[in-house]
Design goal:
Oligomer: single chain
Strand order of the largest sheet: 2-1-10-9-11-12-13
Helix content: 25-40%
Number of helices: 16
CATH architecture of the domain at 38-191: 3-Layer(aba) Sandwich
Structural class: alpha/beta
Distance between the termini: 57 Å
Shape: globular
CATH topology of the domain at 38-191: Rossmann fold
Strand content: 15-25%
Radius of gyration: 23 Å
Largest sheet: 7 strands, mixed
Length: 547
């Protein structure tokens, strides 16, 4: 590793030992970056310096920013961070907002100042916010004023968090007020190393404890110069749009990094219902869409109400893309959905094919710059046609923040993703199933054990097990199998009460849409819950007795 530009060395100090890292590959010439690099200069400053600052950059329902205007906003926030809030290179800064221009500006400003961004989703509750705050030793949060309730609750139980600075409320000590100080329109990017950490993305985690995935400045460019360049093949004239939160790396890449890398523009939506998405595509002439299969399915029924002829590329990730959804969307729009698999650990998509190579039902071929194989439980490569665990390596890879689970994800230099795949003789990869306890519903990753923990805080619940159940609309739904305490009976009223209890404890999208009351749960001889038995039961119930 090169000399760090960080004064606060927490991130580098808490990287896994080098012997536990995956093997990184930089086979493509465009993936070989200089040792000194602040990625914001490549996403933003270069366009202003080359005289293209007047190009549209960020578009929302309330404002549009050119590259020059975004650059000034980023510089002003970076000055606030360093001069008013005492941020030094290497400090972690938590961000809390929906998808909007201020969220993007705050993210880029923190990175430009040499800080490490930890973005969080708007729906998270205080309990979920307090975990990354503690794990990342985060002292400062920048928060949309509409989302301060849970942020304040998290601060009350998070001794590390010293200050929350809000925007959108006009306070004298608020972010917008601080930004207006004279001279703040200019800021020189921190002299960081290409392998300095600039982003920690927290996973949902299969044990209820998220894992912090650490990404370098060079990683932010690598996903653009591999997947975006060789598979997506967007143009500067494109307008991106999508539904994933910027706190998901799928959203960060697809809605911010990919367009800014090529000087394109992006449409940012805080609400992304089918009507919101289709209406914005029509209104702004969006050309490239990033969303989950669930959203494509939901939009099909409403296509006749909107003119979306501007749309020319559609990308899907976050859950398996059913062949039926691919075919229905293609029939309705003439567009082939570009399926892909990525991971928070890998930052973005590493398997996915361009339009001319797409095969319905397949995730696609490996993205240029990456390698992927299918392995057995002992790590041996499997021949075509045999199911096994997916393993990948390339210019990005897993480095967990101070976490022994690094051994589970990185084996013999490969990132082992937790997905079961088959590779055919043409080296197309075909998704089979998740090989862990993660539930993927409407593109959201939901950890079953976390929902179990929320249910168990209710006085009526004695024991429970939570798994994903097949669902035509959402891919999967969260289903809970519950043993009630003695003397209680499960009915519709109690089901509603338990669902509302979970919504109030964790992010609302994690609540169990189905609850089944049972007398016992399948367990091992040592008393451990056998979730795979519950998954089998959920599948059988979904199919019905005559399937």
């Amino acid at each position: 590793m090169t000399a760090s530009g960080h004064i606060d060395t927490f991130a580098r100090d808490n990287l896994p030992p080098r012997g536990q890292w995956p093997e990184f590959r930089f086979d493509l010439p465009e993936l070989r970056y200089p040792e000194r690099l602040n990625c914001v200069t490549k996403f933003l400053d270069r366009w202003v310096a080359s005289g293209e600052g007047a190009r549209p950059c960020l578009i929302s329902l309330t404002e549009t920013l050119t590259y020059a205007e975004l650059s000034e906003r980023v510089n002003r926030i970076a000055n606030v961070l360093t001069k008013d809030l005492g941020v030094v290179p290497g400090n972690r800064v938590l961000l809390r907002s929906a998808n909007n221009p201020m969220m993007v500006a705050a993210c880029l400003a923190a990175i430009k100042a040499g800080a490490v961004v930890v973005a969080t989703m708007p729906l998270l509750r205080a309990k979920e916010l307090s975990y990354p705050i503690a794990k990342g030793r985060i002292a400062l949060a920048l928060c949309d004023s509409r989302l301060t309730d849970e942020m304040d609750k998290a601060r009350a139980v998070s001794p590390d968090l010293k200050r929350i600075v809000t925007w959108g409320d006009g306070k004298n000590d608020g972010l917008e007020t601080l930004m207006q100080q004279p001279g703040y329109e200019h800021f020189s990017a921190c002299d960081t190393a290409a392998d300095d950490v600039c982003l920690i993305g927290f996973t949902s985690g299969t044990t209820g404890e998220p894992k912090g995935t650490m990404h370098f400045h060079r990683d932010m460019l690598a996903i653009c110069d591999s997947y975006a360049k060789h598979v997506l093949r967007a143009q500067p004239s494109d307008r991106f749009i999508g539904s994933p939160p910027l706190a998901f790396t799928f959203g960060l890449g697809g809605l911010v990094l990919f367009p800014l890398r090529i000087g394109a523009s992006t449409v940012l939506l805080e609400r992304t219902t089918p009507d919101d998405m289709l209406g914005a595509i029509a209104k702004f002439g969006a050309t490239i869409c990033f969303t989950a299969p669930t959203a494509y399915r939901a939009m099909i029924a409403k296509l006749g109400e909107y003119d979306i002829k501007s749309l020319r590329k559609c990308v899907s990730a976050g859950e398996s893309l059913p062949k039926a959804t691919f075919e229905a969307w293609h029939k309705a729009t003439g567009l082939k959905i570009l399926d892909g698999i990525g991971a928070t650990e890998m930052l973005h998509i590493f398997i996915g094919s361009p339009e001319e190579e797409v095969r319905a039902g397949s995730t696609g071929r490996v993205v240029p710059g990456y390698e992927a194989i299918v392995i057995d439980d002992e790590g041996r490569e499997m021949p075509p046609g045999i199911a096994g665990r997916l393993a990948v390596r390339g210019p990005t890879g897993c480095r967990y923040l101070a976490d022994t689970r690094q051994f589970n994800y990185v084996q013999s230099g490969w990132n082992v993703t937790g997905d079961t795949y088959v590779m055919d003789r043409d080296r197309y990869f075909w998704y089979q199933a998740r090989s862990d306890d993660m539930i993927i519903s409407s593109g959201y990753n939901i950890a079953g054990p976390e929902v179990e923990s929320a249910l168990l805080t209710h006085a009526a619940v004695a024991e429970c097990g939570v798994v994903g159940a097949p669902d035509e609309e959402r891919g999967q739904i969260v289903k809970a199998y519950i043993i009630l305490r003695a003397g209680l009976t499960g009915d519709d009223a109690l089901t509603k009460e338990l669902q509302e209890h979970v919504k109030a404890t964790v992010a609302p999208y994690k609540y169990p849409r189905a609850i089944e009351y049972v007398a016992e749960l399948p367990k091992t001889q040592t008393g451990k819950l056998q979730r795979f038995e519950l998954r089998k039961k959920a599948v059988a119930t979904a199919r019905g007795p005559n399937s």
